[in-house]
Amino acid sequence: MGKLFAFIDPWDALLATVCILVVVFGALFVPNFLSEFNISQMMASAAEKALIMLPMTLLIITREIDISVASILGLTSVLFGLMIQAELPLVLALLLTVACGAALGLLNGYLVAYIGLPSLVVTLGTMAMFRGVGYILLGTGSINVLPDALVDFGINNVPGTPIPWVLTPFLVLAPIMAIVLQRMATGRRIYAVGGNPDVAIYSGIPSRRLITALFIVTGAICAIAAIVYTARLSNARANNGLGMELDVITIVLLGGVSVFGGKGKLTGVLLALILIAAIRNILALNQIGGDIQGMVIGILLIGSLLLGNFSTAVMSVIAPPARRENKVGAEISSH
Fold first, then answer.
1. What CATH code would you report for 45-334?
2. Are 282 and 330 in contact (CB under 8 A)?
3. Phi and psi, residue 140, nearest 5°
4. Potential cystine with 244: which of 19, 70, 185, 327 (Cβ 3.0-4.6 Å)?
5. What is the rounded distance in angstroms from the CA atom of residue 80 to the CA atom of residue 226?
């Protein structure tokens, strides 16, 4: 029985159970919840959050956070729209947009890793700054004339499936992130930095470079999310993605990633994404507005922190966890 508990993460099992209950409730009591059109729309509406939650998971495991992610999305959406308006080739505009996102992430990473400022404070400041730059560049207007290929990408599904094309970047990046985190030395270093930063430094891990790289990756993926968002809504605006950081952080913490670092897996975060997407969809189908949805997400955020602490205490009694710190340290030393 102990081996079974060690193999099956209790938090993931709880999330999976709640997901099933929510889906069953939607299927029985919410009209059109299981229709192909609604399932496709639900997946499409979660595409940007699904992308951004990937690097956010890695950042929080290292005890850092980036609350400027939605503002990076908004600013890079504006930059992408302006490039399209300037008639740059679509491929070049895509590459430059991702490069701009990476540069914004580099700014965050440099201020955190090399200047030594707290990531919460840094990204709180850049959240306002990036959003403000977007408004300076475009104002309150929008760019709505986009290439046909981009519009088709935003509205069409993969042929023969209910999967929208806008979800495909996530489907490509998610396995890569999972392999990096769970199967590669980089992932072990990420856990080590979050588990005990001082020990990680003494073990020879280049913590500053690692954290900076994670912020750069976060910025680049936010730019990809901006392209997806722009294509899906067929417009580039400075307020694109406004407030999305709350959903992303809630998904990551609800997925079992510890706010104190050193703990978490992408499987739990994926389950949390499905749960929040289903809850938002059920509320929307019942014509419950965004304010109430935001309140529910806030409750889930606080509840996930409380339940996480409680479940950790309970499971330490039922099935004491292995000494992961020693294991990680040994694996790092072998590299």
1. 1.10.3470
2. no
3. -90, 5
4. 70
5. 8
